[in-house]
Amino acid sequence: MKLVIAIIQDEDTANLVSMLTEEGFRVTKLASTGGFLKSGNTTLLIGVDDDKVEALVKVIEKVCRPREVTTSVAPMPLVEEAYMPYPYNIKIGGATIFVLDVDRYERI
Ligand code: 2BA
Predict the structure, then answer these.
(1) Which helix (H) or strand (E) holds 20?
(2) Among 20-34, 51-65, 74-88, where is mean pLDDT lowest?
């Protein structure tokens, strides 16, 4: 069994969770915050049999799309506690996916 951790944009969450549930996947949704933009995103925990991982990734690919956002916070502080103030565009991926081995899974 695998645990798939998928970090997705909030805008895609409702559609993806609905589609995954319809397709028979069990999903836990966590509210999360990206370290770089410091804005909300969604982390999904999905436990799946090994042979279902590719099907799961395909569903995520189908629903989640990359978007560009404009941010005014530069990635590097210029001096301590000071950030470059001008706006610039960042492309946020449709999803960031980690696939982990699961040693043990029980539903009691
Ligand atoms: P954030 O950390 O808020 O990052 C949002 C977007 O900002 C990233 O999109 C990327 O395009 C850009 N970005 C992030 N760090 C950067 C840096 N040091 N320099 C320049 N640009 C940077 P994605 O890569 O699609 O990531 C979307 C969200 O997925 C991230 O939100 C974070 O919450 C999560 N994530 C991505 N890679 C991760 C990783 N290796 N480990 C844990 N979480 C990750």
Answers:
(1) helix 10-22
(2) 74-88
* Per-domain boundaries in the chain: 2-101
Q: Was domain 2-101 assigned CATH 3.40.50.300? A: no
Residue 24 pLDDT > 60: yes
Mutate to test the pocket of ligand 1, among 30, 67, 92, 97 (most ligand atoms within 8 A of CB): 92
In contact, 12 and 62? CB cutoff 8 Å: no
> What is the torsional sign of CA 28, 3, 20, 95?
positive
Quote the pTM value. 0.90
Q: In the numeric block, which tokens belong to residue 81?
A: 């506690």
Ligand 1 surroundings by CB, under 6 angstroms: 7, 34-37, 41, 75, 90-93, 96
C-alpha to C-alpha distance for 71 and 66, rounded to whole angstroms: 16
5 vs 15: CA distance, rounded Å? 17
